Amino acid sequence: MTYLAPFLRDLAGTGPAELGVVFAVAGVAGLAGGQLGGRAADRWGADRALLVGVTGVSPS
Question: CA dist 18 to 29, 44, 45, 57, Å?
């Protein structure tokens, strides 16, 4: 994530407060994804969970 701060600062003009929000949202999303992905892998197996996860977020 270290490359993201200069990128957002230079291209989007974000300040320290906005960067904090971006990093917090990314952390919560990572935590939720890890929990949901782990539960899906336990229930359906890793291959099926990965397939459902990838096709679930792909644009139609």
Answer: 16, 38, 38, 25
Q: How far is it, in rounded angstroms, from Cα 12 to Cα 18?
A: 10
Q: Residue 40 burial by CB count (10 A; 0-12/13-18/19+): exposed, middle or buried?
A: middle
Q: Is 58 left (phi over 0), alpha (psi -120 to 50) or beta?
A: beta
Per-residue tens of pLDDT for the chain, all 60 residues: 778 888 888 888 888 888 889 899 999 999 999 999 999 999 999 999 999 888 877 776
Contact assessment for residue 17 and residue 25, using Cβ atoms and an 8 Å cutoff: no
